[in-house]
Amino acid sequence: MGGSYSSSSTYSKPSVSLNTQQSAKSMKSFFAKETSSLAGAYALFFAQDAYSGTAKKKGFIKQLAEIQNCKEIPKEFPEIEYEAKIAVDVISDEKRTDELMTDQSATNQSATNQSATIEQYLDAFEFPCTETVHRFLKDPINVISEGKNHFYGKEDEEMLVVIEKGEKTFLKEKSQPLELSTHIPLQNLVMKRTEKRYSAGVNQILEKIAETARAGGMYKGVIRKEKGDAFILDTNDGRIYSFTITRSHLEKKEGTEKTRVQTQLEIEYAGYIPGFSAFQEGSEKQIISGMVDLTKYVLVLHNNSPLIPSLRMRLSSTQERKYDFVSGREITFDKMIKQKSLEENCKSDVELTWPFIPFLGTSETEEEVRT
Prior knowledge:
This protein is α+β, with helices and mostly antiparallel strands. It is built from 12 helices and 10 strands. Helix 2 runs antiparallel to helix 3.
């Protein structure tokens, strides 16, 4: 889940310098309609690097929010996840285009993908900012984290995810993809689902897993997930999109040769900055339009772009969820769109057995858990 600017922010407080003051002044002029773009403010904000000799300054969007007196980033439809996914394959500079057309090994996300860090992936996606080209501005806060996700479901339905992150545990519940009716061309680049994520202790997790089991859910597997967040501001309407690289590791199973890796770029709606004249509050159509434009922009501008020396990124739109990756399913998006009735979850009781509680660790035996 990368769709919240406020919850992903870890900043050092901006130093007060001449550039900082000029950048803030330029932001205020924009909201007062005295200037027509944020390009100048953006350039001044990140020019602090050269001015101070310090590391890349973080928090451009945060400073915009502070100028608009926003303590928290507002977001419509907080219960809905709007997400576009891009598969990221890594290829070497030596590969010829005709080889890429027939080489299927890259689609398995080979170990080459692991030769770059998550931060290097994020930094590889550049968004030029000039007075004439500045629709999408990147806020490279680059918050990096790692954890384990345990998946439960039945057939193509993801029912529950148990997340281990540091010393904390969380539960995440998502619906099946919901149908969009915005009539935006290429709207199906965006997946719409309901989502709940909340902190949970062991007892609450066990209760939820038991409930999932009674509804017919089964344990599907676990991934180790590396994750890095940056954010994109759409200067057309002030909407913010999380820009998240995830690298998921599925440990090798008996009879397989190696660990499988899925690398994706996930773009998710994350809220908005008030004060942009084109902003339409509560407009799902505007959200989808912005996400489609951003996804197309990334696919066109960054496909086959450099990652690190001798390696490039090959990008393609995908609808593969982490659940599909763990389950080994090949999913056709149109088949996933459905409205799920409550009756589908009303199944007979299923005994809670060891495969449903793997997050407790491997030190306990099945008999110990059952007692």
